[in-house]
Structure formats: structure tokens, C-alpha cells
Design goal:
InterPro entries: AAA+_ATPase, AAA_lid_BCS1, ATPase_AAA_core, ATPase_AAA_CS, Mitochondrial_chaperone_BCS1, P-loop_NTPase. This is AAA+ ATPase domain-containing protein. Pfam families: AAA, AAA_lid_BCS1. This protein has about 240 residues and is of the alpha/beta class. It contains ten helices and seven strands. A hairpin with a 2-residue loop joins strand 4 and strand 5. Helix 7 runs antiparallel to helix 8 and helix 8 runs parallel beside helix 10.
Length: about 240
């Protein structure tokens, strides 16, 4: 994750430290493999903060309150795949009638109270990831409770090209990988050829990187030659 991406999303105090200066809640939306969890870990590393990952389906209201009360003043809290535990939307999620709806084993009211507690504590960053934002209750993601919603998309041609360059471009002093003996200008040309054969918004970055490129990291030319057949086989599934 480029540092400018994190910096553009977060307000930080650069005069005293790299810690987050205010409380921030971000909802990251995207299909599996688009980098939601990886981004969260990168943000924690970038700002040198501990990260706490909570699985709502494995805890109840009491445990949720206990865990949130033990969080340090400055940290990242990650609620992964919150839609997998969440209920569907309601007409008015914050009315008394709906306040007891369950989010997994956690009631919606308890979760909202926990989130509001996080937002009142400077120096904490809460990240919620979801594959299906339409399944979330409006109360979870309303303005004021969530500072920003960010969409992580499936790979386009620009992303496919960048992934190719990441795998095959040489770093200083890197001569261990035969695939990195080709000069960077040639790699960029091959990356454009590779990207032209990858359809937009079909594959996740993780799928392109892990299922294809890294399996051919010894030869960028093989990657370009093989990608058309790989795409076709994926389309048959």
C-alpha cells in the first residue's frame, strides 16, 4: 500500500508522532481478494500501531464490551466481514423496536454502543470490512458513525499491469530471480501486453498475483504467453 494512500485517508499528527490524532472509522467495501485486510494491516504498520481483529460471530454482548474496554488508547481495530454476521437493513435501525437485533451473537445496540465508544477515543482507528455493504444496517454505516466508505474493486488493466511489474521488475541488487534479468523498460512493455489480455473487473488482485503471476515468476514472457489460456479456463468454471 503506498504511503500516500494511507495519508490521504487518515488525519495524523506529524508534529509529535506518527500516531493518529483523531478517532476514525472506515468501512472498506469489496469482493474477496481485493486487499481489504491487507490494507488494514498495512495501515497499522504505517502508523506503528497494534491491530486487534474481532470476530463478532464468536462473542456476545458482554464479551464485546469487555474486549473494547481493554483496548489501548492508540490502536487499530479490525472487524472483518461484518456482513457475514450482520442482519439485513431495517426501516429504522436505531428505534427502540429494532435495538435488540442480533449481529451474530452480538446485539445491534451493543455493537453501535461499542462503535460510538471507539469514536470518542482519540487515537483509535476502527476498520470494518464487508463484501456486501447492502446487507449492513443503515445505523452501522451512517455519516457520523463512519467517517469514510472506501471501495476496493476487482482488478482493472492498470492494476494488472502494476501487479506484473511488482513481480518482475528488478530491485537494486536483486539478481537471484532469473525472471528479473530483463530490464525494466522491457518489463513495462510486457506488462502492457499482459494487462491487455486480462479483462477488467473480473479477477481480484489476489487471484492474479497468487494464482497466476507468482506461479510464473521465473519468466515474464511465459506469463504473457500463458495468461490468455488462464483467463479462458477461469471463464469455464
Amino acid at each position: 500500500m503506498p504511503q500516500e494512500t494511507a495519508n490521504s485517508m487518515l488525519t495524523v499528527s506529524t508534529s509529535t508522532s506518527t500516531s493518529i490524532a483523531i478517532a476514525i472509522t472506515i468501512a472498506i467495501v469489496g469482493a474477496p481478494g481485493t486487499g481489504k485486510s491487507s490494507f488494514s494491516l498495512s495501515v497499522a504498520r504505517r502508523f506503528e500501531l497494534d491491530i486487534y481483529v474481532l470476530n463478532l460471530s464468536s462473542i456476545d454482548d458482554s464479551r464485546l464490551n469487555s474486549l473494547f474496554s481493554q483496548l489501548p488508547p492508540h490502536c487499530v481495530i479490525l472487524l472483518e466481514d461484518i456482513d457475514a454476521a450482520s442482519t439485513t437493513r431495517t426501516e429504522d435501525s436505531e428505534t427502540t423496536e429494532n435495538a435488540g437485533q442480533a449481529v451474530g451473537n452480538v446485539s445491534l445496540s451493543a455493537l453501535l454502543n461499542a462503535l460510538d465508544g471507539v469514536s470518542s477515543q482519540e487515537g483509535r482507528l476502527l476498520i470494518m470490512t464487508t463484501n456486501h455493504i447492502e446487507r449492513l444496517d443503515d445505523a452501522l454505516i451512517r455519516p457520523g458513525r463512519v467517517n469514510r466508505q472506501v471501495l476496493f474493486q476487482l482488478a482493472d488493466k492498470k492494476m494488472a499491469s502494476r501487479l506484473f511489474c511488482t513481480v518482475f521488475k528488478r530491485s537494486d541488487g536483486d539478481h537471484s530471480n532469473p525472471g528479473k534479468e530483463i530490464d525494466d523498460k522491457t518489463i513495462e512493455r510486457l506488462a502492457d501486453e499482459f494487462a491487455a489480455k486480462v479483462p477488467d473487473q473480473v479477477f481480484s488482485p489476489a487471484e492474479i498475483l497468487l494464482s497466476f503471476l507468482l506461479e510464473r515468476k521465473q519468466s515474464p514472457t511465459d506469463a504473457v504467453a500463458d495468461v490468455k489460456n488462464w483467463v479462458a479456463k477461469k471463464g469455464e468454471r
